[in-house]
Amino acid sequence: MMSRLRNLFRKNPDRIQYRQEFVADMDRQLNGFVRIGSAIAIFAWLDFAFNTDKKLHPEFPELLYFRLGLTGIAILVFLATFIPQLSRFGALSIKLLIGYVIVATSFFTGRIADDPNYVSGLQIVVMIPIATPVAFRLFLALETISILTFVISVLVHKPNLSTPAAAYSMNNLLISYVIAISFSFMLDRIRFGSFMKTKKIELKNIEIEAQIKRINELKTQQDGDYFLTSQLLHPLALNEAVPSRIRVEFLTEQKKKFQFRQWHSEIGGDISSSNSVILRNKRYVAFMNGDAMGKSIQGAGGALVLGTVFKSFLHRTQNDEMSRFVFPEQWLRDCYEELDHVMISFDGRMLVSAVIGLIDEDSGLLYYINAEHPWIVVLRNGEASFIEEEMTLRKLGMPENEELFRVKTYRLQQGDVIFAGSDGRDDISMGRDEMGNSMINSDETLFLRTIEKANGDLHEIRRQLQERGDITDDLSLIRITYDGTGHEPITKSDLSVIRRYAQNKDYEGAAQELDKLYAENPHDPKIVYELALLNSRLKHFAKAAALGEEYCNYDPSDLGMIYLTSRALKYCANGDKSLLKRAADYGERLILREPMSFHGIVNLSDIYRRLEKKDKAALLFKKAQAFDPENRAVKRLEGLLTGS
Question: Which of 381, 389, 461 lies closest to 419, judged by CA?
């Protein structure tokens, strides 16, 4: 019981913290009472002043002045409500008005305390502040002043309080004071509780508004970051391939759309880029389609890095003569290694799938690498099909990926159209199953059928994919059309005589006849091909190497001729480093396209040995030894490497 009482009178920390705000809130409520309260007060005591008081207490004429004093003060307060400069003092004026009523009533009631009627009036007056929103401290002060004023007035004027009626009136007055103070205390706690609820709601609203403001600021900042990133991505995702026999088209639609100020844009991890490059005096179209891991800004960050490194590599190729003096296979290897090393530096936080390719404008040969990206599609004679059937490389940024590296090739024919694209082309929501789970397309051939139905048009492909369901990921597509004729080794020369020489194993005679035909038709690829083979067989390696390089320039798809050329250059070099370097270049072309070529590995290891690149030679020798440790060529190479 005592603890409850102590809790009742214990200081509330909130009361201390918000005391001024609570008083200000009460004053705001009081302002609503000023005009109507002062208007009532003007007339409240007039009847008593001019009628009742004269009849009941003619001996107390001063009562008139107390009554009229209220009217006068009330008139001033009422008029002040119409003056803007004074209206802000409304709460103070109503407090003064209440104070005057209580003190004046207490004084004149004390003088005539033996009159129960006037004592009853005082009982009513002391209850008035309960109905008005004033703080308990002010109410207690007014009640205390009222009691003191009443007691002093009784002591000064000594009314007769010995009668039973007077004693009864005093008891009622005392009860009125107790009730008024008690009720005021409880109401004050209730009012403060209500104030605190409102205050907490207000504080919560302020907190929520601050959070919303912060969220909006962050959203604006995020959209600003999105916008900046999208602007940075734009110059990296350009189709800069010069139109010629090869035409390149892009379609990119990122999943994340946003608005920054008046600009509408999109952002995501897909990126496409293309340009024209010249390698060893041959024109190529270089292209890249990539898909960086992560959503929105994370994916865009990966695309930004991918696009920056790829474009830098392209510019270096275009502006640096040494960078242009490489074969397509070597260019793709160098590009891949540069991209992969940058991605690996992010410790697995930035993985990118990509297709990177080069197309020879003359021969139509496509060189490409696929790092865990959806397969390239070719549309030929209205029929779409994949040009690859297996995945060899993992995503850029995956460690220990070099061992899987391989350059793939595909010969394009006139009118062929190839498509490279991100997995958004396959990630289509086909609706929901009976359990309510989203059904994602798992049929890779859907894209093939869509290409055929859309007749290869990129926008129609997108429209038809959208008709089949919701595209759940970023979508990017590259469409490349080859309008060249390609190279086919067709000859008009009669080679039947040459074949008869070869059947009789008269290779010298065959070579002499071919030399005659070559003099008549120096640009006939079939003659060049046969003559290169014959000279290699006859160990005329210098001539075989020259003819082999000529043919490889015409038909770079022939791996056999690439091997022959590399081997011929090696044997005719006689220590000439430049010829050995050319031999190594052709040897690398073969290994980059056929990493498991046993003869290619042995040949290139021997070339590196002659170039005194011992580490590379030893590495390739170990591969050859793993294939066939008892092979004579391997044994011979081992002796040369070890000096035994």
Answer: 461
pLDDT tens digits for 231-256? 888 889 899 998 889 999 999 988 87
SS3 content of the chain, % helix, strand, coil (to 5): 60, 15, 25
**Helix (H) or strand (E) run with residue 494 in it:** none
- Residue 359 near residue 480, CB atoms below 8 Å: yes
CB atoms within 10 A of CB 28: 12
pLDDT mean values, one per 10 residues, the chain (644 residues): 52 73 74 78 83 84 83 83 73 79 84 84 81 77 86 87 84 86 81 81 86 79 76 88 92 82 80 95 96 84 92 92 92 95 89 96 95 95 93 88 88 95 87 74 89 95 90 91 73 61 71 83 87 91 95 94 96 92 96 95 94 93 90 88 73
pLDDT in tens, 65-123: 888 888 888 888 888 778 777 766 767 777 787 888 888 888 888 888 888 888 888 88
Instruction: Please report, as a single letter, which amino acid is at residue 211.
Output: Q
Q: Report CA dihedral (99, 105, 106, 107) to the nearest 10 degrees.
A: 110
Q: How many CB atoms lie within 10 A of CB 464?
A: 16
pTM exceeds 0.70: yes
Q: Which two tokens stand for residue 151?
A: 């007691």
DSSP code per residue over 12-38? PHHHHHTHHHHHHHHHHHHHTTHHHHH
Inter-residue contact 588 to 604 (CB < 8 Å): yes
Angstrom distance (rounded) from CA 101 to CA 106 = 8
- Structural domains for the chain: 2-205 (no CATH), 237-482 (3.60.40.10), 496-642 (1.25.40.10)
Q: Is 428 helix (H, G, I), strand (E, B) or coil?
A: strand
List Cα–Cα distances, 149 to 62, 113, 156, 348, 627, in angstroms. Answer: 17, 12, 10, 87, 119
Q: Which pLDDT score is estimated for 5?
A: 46
Nearest to 478 by CA among 498, 458, 463, 464: 458
Report the distance separating Cα 593 and Cα 586, nearest Å. 11
CA 351, chain centre distance (Å):
16
Beta strands in 166-245 (DSSP E): 239-240
Torsion angle (degrees, nearest 10) of CA 187, 190, 193, 195: -60
Query: Longest C-alpha distance within the chain, in Å?
Result: 164
* Tokens coding 496: 């039947």
What does the alpha-carbon distance between residue 360 and residue 245 come to, in Å, rounded to a whole number?
A: 10
- Residue written as tokens 């210098």? 542
Tell me how far apart the alpha carbons of residues 300 and 643 are, in angstroms, rounded to a whole number. Answer: 54
Q: Are the CB atoms for 285 and 361 separated by under 8 Å?
A: yes
SS3 readout for 527-592 = HHHHHHHHHHHCCCHHHHHHHHHHHHHHCCCCHHHHHHHHHHHHHHHCCCHHHHHHHHHHHHHHHH
Give every strand in the sheet of 408-411, ordered side by side. Answer: 239-240, 270-279, 282-292, 352-360, 365-371, 408-411
What token pair was written down for 516?
A: 């005659």
Of the candidates 114, 188, 184, the residue with the CA atom closest to the CA atom of residue 143:
184
Report yes or no: 139 and 184 within 8 Å, Cβ to Cβ.
yes
